[in-house]
Every structure is written in structure tokens, then in C-alpha cells.
Amino acid sequence: MSGWGKYVVAALLVAVVTHLVIVFATPNVLMNIAQQRLGNGRYNAWRLGERVTQNSRAIVRPSPDFAYSACPYDLGNGPVRIHVTPWRDYWSLSLYANNSDNYFVLDDREAQNGADILLVRAGTALPDHETATIVQSPSQRGIALIRRLAPTPDSYAAAAQVSRGDVCTTAR
Amino acid sequence: MLRRILAWIAALAVGLLLGSASAWAALTVGVSGFSSHYGAWSLNRAAGSTAADPYTRAIIARYGLLALSSREALYFNLDRDERGQPLSESCVYDLSGRDLATRWWSITLYASDSYLVRNDDHAASIDSSHVGAGDDGLWHARVSSVQGNTVNWLSSRTARRGFSLTLRVYNPQRDFTPSEDSLPRLTTVSCAGAL
Questions:
Q1: H helices within B54-165, ranges in order?
Q2: Percentage of chain B modeled with pLDDT above 70
Q3: Domain map of chain A by residue range?
Q4: Which residues pair with A104 in a beta bridge?
Q5: What integer is the mean pLDDT of A94-121?
Q6: Which chain A residue has the Cα nearest residue B57?
Q7: Residue-wise pLDDT tens digits, A39-76
Q8: Is A170 exposed, middle or buried (0-12, 13-18, 19+ CB in 10 A)?
Q9: Which of A49, A60, A149, B35 could make a disulfide contact with A89, Cβ separation 3.0–4.6 Å?
Q10: Exposure b/e, A58-82, CB count within 10 A at least 16 = b
Q11: CA distance, residue A115 to nearest chain B CA (Å)
């Protein structure tokens, strides 16, 4: 190849690689940012978000109708145990992999008495004699998110009270 | 020699620029390509799905990170009026609809940056538990910068131009079928400065 041809080919190759890297990396980068913002740098612990207001900037398009509790999890030290305390109105538990996939969801219709989950890394040995529901995470890190319908300040305060019974911790 | 080095640096820079610009375009302009349209509303059924392709996943991560799967909730967005114009703070809109075949729904107004509008009107959202149908069988809400005499109000004050509405449909029933007729309708009432 001679003349300007090799430079054009090189530019096109760099463009394709750059394009793919950005597209593939965007969910992981944004999820890492979300984990830091929602967990304030901590993993395997619930953190109740402040009531969504006009000043909320943790995640895009937040709903002001919900009390959100987030637990960025890390399975590096083994499985994580999750308990969700039931709520009088709609609630759901969602689990997101590090690439932003919502791989598990449970709501109050399916779990009227709350939820007990043992979160394990996909591909690892499953524990015996486990009473909790075992869920396999496709990635080592991710985010567990509880939504409790609480559209008023009073209902948010009640949901905040209930959220104190939630558990997200490394299993012993 | 120096000319060659400069040429390689230029090729690298052009490649980075092209790659970044095309990725940005794919994730920005491509939003509509992954959506189903029902009148002015658009729906992305891939939100939160594990089957989402890399482009859809990146778009969702950018515009709806931590969205629920379509089994749990459906997210509809509206950012144009009935004439195809971007929604504007200087206009007054009527939003009306019938009850939806779902457990609960809400409509929230977002500024062009996808966050709640920075005003202290506490009128960013309406939901099915607080809006009731009138004599015409429809519920009505007002989208405007001032409340006026309406009860169901979505405040667009300080939203300027380019804001949007998100309709969240939680636990849709099996017979829930989105359509232009079944989803809420936005109608422009007036615009400041319009003849």
C-alpha cells in the first residue's frame, strides 16, 4: 500500500475499534459510576436514597414516587445474603449485573412476606442445605435495588422505617 | 520523516474522532431505532432485558440505567407535541387519558438533561391513585409553567425547551395493549408568543 492509502486504512481501523470500545464499555462504566454514587463507595450494605427531588442527580430519570434502597454488591469474598422487608404497597427487588442487565426481579405479588436471597457468582459451587432462594449473578459486582412505592413525604418516612429491616451482607 | 510521523498522528486523531463521533451518534440518534411508537409515545421493550444487544444496552444505560424489565414495568417516553415540535415551557398542554389495564401508572416530567426540573413546585409527577376520570370518562392533567386552576399539574417551570414525559406502567395486565388510543394524549392548549 502506498501514498495516503495506508493512513486512511489506519484511521478507519482506529475508528472502528474506538466505536466498539465506547459502545461495549458504556454500560460497565456507567454502572461503576452508579455503584459509587449509590453506595458511597461501600459494597454489601443497603443505603436508602434520599427522597427523589429536583436536586437528585445520582441516576438519570429517577422516579419521585419511590423510596429507593441500593446495595452495590461484590461477590469477591463469597456469596451475599439479601433480605427484603415487605412493604404495605408495591415493592420490588431488582438485581443488575455489571453490564446493566436486569437479570432478576421479584415483587410483592410473588413475595408477600418479603424476600430471602443468597446471591452467588454464576459458575461457582452452590451451597447445600440453603433455605434462601439462590440467585446466580453473571458478574462479580452489580447492584441490588429495592423500590417501595412511597409518593408522599409521609409514605416515604414509613418506607424508610421499614427499610431498616433490610439486609445485604457477605454470607458467613 | 517528520511528515510521516505527522501523517500517522493525524490518522490516529481522525480515527479517534470518527470512532467517538459515530458511537455518540449511534447512542444518541439511535434511541428511536430501538423503540416502538404509539402516536407520540415511544416504548423500548428491551429496557433491562438480558437479551439486549450491545447498542440497546448502551442506550438504556445512558438514558435509563437501572430500568426494570418489561415483565415488571413498561417505560413510555414523549418529547414532542402533536405537531412534532419539542415540548416547551412557554406552552400549555392538556394531557388526558383513560384508565390503563395495569396495577399502577405514573407520568413524570423530566428536563432535557433527564433529571427532574429544578423548581420547587413539587409537581413533577402524577399517578393513577390521584387522578380521577371526569364526565367525559377521561382524566385530565395540565402541563404548564403555572398551576392555574388545575388539580392535576405537571410543572414545566424552568424546564425551558426540550423536556419530556415518562409514563411508567407497573405490573401491566395481560390484556394491556399499548396503542395511540389507549395511551394518554397530549394536546397543545396555547403557546406564549404564538399567533
A1: 54-64
A2: 92
A3: 47-170
A4: A95
A5: 93
A6: A27
A7: 888 999 999 999 998 988 877 888 888 999 999 999 99
A8: middle
A9: A149
A10: bbbbbbbbbbbbbbbbbbeeebbbb
A11: 17
What is the band of A151 on the pLDDT scale with cuts at 50, 70, 90? confident
* Strands B139-144 vs B153-155: parallel, antiparallel or unpaired: parallel
Grid cell listed for B123: 409537581
Cβ–Cβ pairs < 8 A, chains A and B: 163
- Contact assessment for residue A138 and residue A122, using Cβ atoms and an 8 Å cutoff: yes
How distant is the Cα of A100 from the closest Cα of chain B, in angstroms?
Answer: 7
What is the mean pLDDT of the segment spanning B90-119?
Answer: 94
CB contacts of B7 in chain A (<8 Å) are: 4, 7
Q: How far apart are CA A134 and CA A80, in angstroms?
A: 10
The mean per-residue pLDDT over the stretch B111-117 comes to 94
Q: pLDDT digits over B19-40, tens only?
A: 999 999 888 877 666 678 999 9
